[in-house]
Amino acid sequence: MIWLTGGGCASPRWLTQEGAEALGSASAVVYDRLIHPDLLLLCPPGALFIQAGKRGSDHTMSQEEINRLLVELAADHPHVVRLKGGDPFVFGRGGEEAQELDRHGIPWRAVPGVTAALGGLLKEGIPVTHRGAASAVCLATGHLEAPSESYWGSLARFDGSRVLYMSASNLPENLGRLISLGLPENEPCVAVTWGGWGRSYVVGGTAGEGARGGWASQVRSPSVVMIGGSARVRLTPAELPLKGLTVAVCRPMPEGYQTARRLEALGADAFTLPLLEVRPTASREELLASLEGADTVVFTSPRGPKVFRDLVMDLRLLRCRTVAIGEGTRRSLEEMGIGVDLMPERADSRSLAELLVSCVRPGERILFLRNRRCSPLPVEAVRRAGALALELPIYEMVPRGLPWRELILEHWQDTRPHAVVFGSAALAEAFADEFGPLPAGAVPVAWGEECAKRCGELFRRRGVVMASQDLDGLVSALLEIRGSEHPPKHRGRG
């Protein structure tokens, strides 16, 4: 089965439920270059990823090559996803791919996506229809191999909103052609580049001004251009505090993905870099032996509870007091039915150490279920308090590859990251191994003092330490970065 799937025109938050289900079962994914790279994180481990995308005149593969590839993949993979930005059947050539699959008797399904004419314009407060301004909308391509006068004439005379796709490189020429066929020179126009994304920007003016260059010279690919109709209507959506910021989030899954989506809800463009993943390091027997007689069990990260559950299998064996280092760890425990008795005010090792010193008694057995690499401060504090500190590294973080690394870098060519968020010192090291130096001008945001120190050693930029290790602390740090500089303008290519 081939799933011809639309990824929407921006954040994975706009992906349909059916699209998420298709990706979640994919054994192979053929994706375009305008998708959000984080969509590929929804696929199962071990899936095959092939970039076949087109952007403007820059083609990785021809359409004929893509058609052949889909036919070949269908023979070897039970569930193939052809993933496109926007909607695959709105100037996405999904129909041509479907015809090719039909010719070979290969079953396929279509999954719609949010197309730029709808999502991208509306996010900027520009409706495609509006009472009294436009009762009809026409979606058209501005990039035709053999433009006909009748085609452009019908657009010039259309009574409603005309939305041109693929017109960035020849927009003045197209507007001039429409004017020559009857479009009034004072007809209002508006263009949205990177519609739906945090990096989006809007320019516009009259058709005549655009035909002479003017505002049209600022339009870059990918863009949609609305001519007439409700182009004169501008609504005012609520402002988003992180609009215009591009952020890379170096945290493991699923925390990194969740953090990126929450930043996007505040207006940023966010890219998840889960450069490390969990690998269990203890056996069930070791865990059960360590639990025997423990008075308190301390979980030092959101990943520990899941590893604990998978190892212990029977949660009733946990019969003692529990301590979580922070809100994320508390949620992870409570999601699996484990209550939390104690949690420090701040989600860092120093605060955890202070909490434990205040509540443990001499002779108590305190079991730390932790990452193989973590701060020694809480353990040392427990021992100074006269309690017995037992340490069981139940997991370690190991490198995880990103097959779509080049796609991320392509996005960063358009708008560089203003900040790179590091969830640990180990993740800062993994970033340096995978990407080298930080992108020019990017500020490291550290999940604690130890992480900030390591960033300074690796990147010669100590960066910003979050006031609290949660979303509020991260947003405050990003607002501080935004206040110190004006995000650069889009550097897209026409």
From TrEMBL:
UniProt key word Transferase: yes
Residue spans crossing the bilayer: none
Lineage start: Bacteria, Thermotogati, Synergistota, Synergistia, Synergistales
Key words of the record: Methyltransferase, Porphyrin biosynthesis, S-adenosyl-L-methionine, Transferase
GO molecular-function terms, A-Z: uroporphyrin-III C-methyltransferase activity; uroporphyrinogen-III synthase activity
Every Tetrapyrrole methylase domain range: 1-209
Pfam families the record matches: HEM4, TP_methylase
UniProt-listed Enzyme Commission number(s): 2.1.1.107
All copies of domain Tetrapyrrole biosynthesis uroporphyrinogen III synthase, residue ranges: 258-475
A single BP term in Gene Ontology: methylation
InterPro entries the UniProt entry points to: 4pyrrol_Mease, 4pyrrol_Methylase_sf, 4pyrrol_syn_uPrphyn_synt_sf, 4pyrrol_synth_uPrphyn_synth, 4pyrrole_Mease_sub1, 4pyrrole_Mease_sub2, CobA/CysG_C, Siro_Cobalamin_biosynth
Identification of the protein by name: uroporphyrinogen-III C-methyltransferase
PANTHER family xref list: S-ADENOSYL-L-METHIONINE-DEPENDENT UROPORPHYRINOGEN III METHYLTRANSFERASE, CHLOROPLASTIC, SIROHEME SYNTHASE-RELATED
